Amino acid sequence: MYEWIDPLRFLLCLLFLLIASIYDIRTREVPNWIWAVFAPIGLALTLASLMLGGWSYPRITMLVISVILTICLSLALFYIGMFGGADAKALMCLAAAMPIYPEKFELTAKFLLPMPPISTFNNAVLAASLLTLVISFRNLIDLIKYKGRIFEGLEEERLVKKIAAFITGFRVDAEKIRGEKHYYIPLEEFSIGENGKLIRRLRILRSLNAEEREEKLIPKELSGKIWVTMGLPFLVFIMLGFLASFFFGDIIFWLIKATAQ
Q1: Same structural domain for residues 241 and 116?
Q2: What are the residues whose beta carbons fall under 8 Å from the beta carbon of 62, sequence distance 6 or more?
């Protein structure tokens, strides 16, 4: 009689993640009303599902573990600057709406983690990391085109930084950063040396919460290309990761298990 609740929870998560993803793609900002509506409705449906399905110690224990882990992970990534506020809120809302798989949902060997929010995050990170292949291919073409001179002005930087920039970023004209709306995050920082010469340094780890895309960060005297990375609409990957968690499970753990056999 109440079998509709769990499919409704799934559709609710998918709907709100889709709406948030559209905002993220268009403006890289997601209004708070989405989470303010998503979280209480999702939590109410989760409690209804538990009560109608019967309380059990194992399910309650797993639910609590899932919620705590998701909240801790989301806040930790947010405060160290590796996660945007909307990304953290999306995972926490998933913890409210779908902390564990529905009781009648048949798990297979592929589902090594019974916590959809954590599997969603793992799948999202895996999907986003695949972009490094596309970025590296683009930079390889650039490397051939400019005969290896893609780190001009950064010759003194360590090789490990150059490799990190090569697989996570690409070069764009400095004027493009100054002159138009964009979603690039500079991978370089600039300072003036004692002799008045402009000093460029690669800075790979950029905080997503810092206002580091302002024009004043790019010196006016700088011309040519600088290294940047794209501010990804990560909510799109979270939505895809959520879908994958139901159809494929936690792909990272599945791959680990497959390679270990």
Answers
A1: yes
A2: 100, 114, 115
Estimate the crossing angle of helix 116-129 against helix 85-97, to 10 degrees: 140
Give the sign of the dihedral formed by CA 133, CA 130, CA 76, CA 39. Answer: positive
Please tell me whether residues 99 and 114 are part of one structural domain.
Answer: yes
**Cα 150 to Cα 141: distance, rounded to the nearest angstrom:** 11
- Separation between Cα atoms, residue 203 and residue 153, nearest integer Å: 14
pLDDT digits (tens, 9 = 90+) for 8-66: 999 999 999 999 999 999 988 899 999 999 999 999 999 998 888 777 788 889 999 99
248: containing domain: 5-130+234-260
How far, in Å, CA of 132 to CA of 93, rounded? 28
CATH of the domain at 114: 1.20.120.1220
pTM attached to this predicted model = 0.84
Residues 125 and 180 in one domain: no
Q: Are residues 97 and 53 in the same domain?
A: yes
